[in-house]
Amino acid sequence: MSGGSESTDEALWLLAVNGDGDAFGTLFDRYRDRVHGHAIGIVGSSHQAEDITAIVFLEAWRRRDKVRMVNGSIIAWLLVTANNTIRNHNRQRRRYRAFLDQLPPPASVRDVAEDFVESVERDAEARALRTAFFQLKPQDRDVLTLCVIQGLSLKQAAEALAVAEGTVKSRLHRAKTRLGRQYKGPDWQPRIIEPRLSGLPPVLLTP
Questions:
Q1: Helix/strand/coil (H, E, C) string of the chain?
Q2: How much of the chain exceeds pLDDT 90, in percent?
């Protein structure tokens, strides 16, 4: 093995770019739980979060020569890729549901899958927050993920998103306001609320 668990992300990634699977595996072990926790907090399903996590790291390996480091870490790139993967996953689910809607109605027997979905999304507050989050524009979701959920600085988020620091600041202000209004209604005024999203830290909506 060329890189140990004590190696930096940058050192490990340099090895991974050159095809070192052991170095990539070390990074997977380092960040798998954070990516999975982020995914499960948004989609609300452990099974779906596992699939999303696998796709994120597959993309990281496939596009390893294009990954952007932020402050010597790969985590920001992984989380933004997770957001993109979740967005694509939701599009596929909508297409699948549209297909099912065209089929003849089944016999009036309760589907076990319905019970499972209800048990996963029993917490109405978390469900409402997830819905509000997904109604935001992709750039709003990304800046909230990096600055609010993961606690990156404006400078670090700017590096991850390849935009100016002032752009991140203005996007963050707008994203918090939009999320608050999606979550609480059009008359909502910026302030601090702390809904819990399946184990994620509180989401602060104050601009």
A1: CCCCCCCCHHHHHHHHHCCCHHHHHHHHHHHHHHHHHHHHHHHCCHHHHHHHHHHHHHHHHHCCCCCCCECCECHHHHHHHHHHHHHHHHHHHHHHHHHHHCCCCCCCCCCHHHHHHHHHCCCHHHHHHHHHHHCCCHHHHHHHHHHHHCCCCHHHHHHHHCCCHHHHHHHHHHHHHHHHHHHHCCCCCCCCCCCCCCCCCCCCCCC
A2: 23
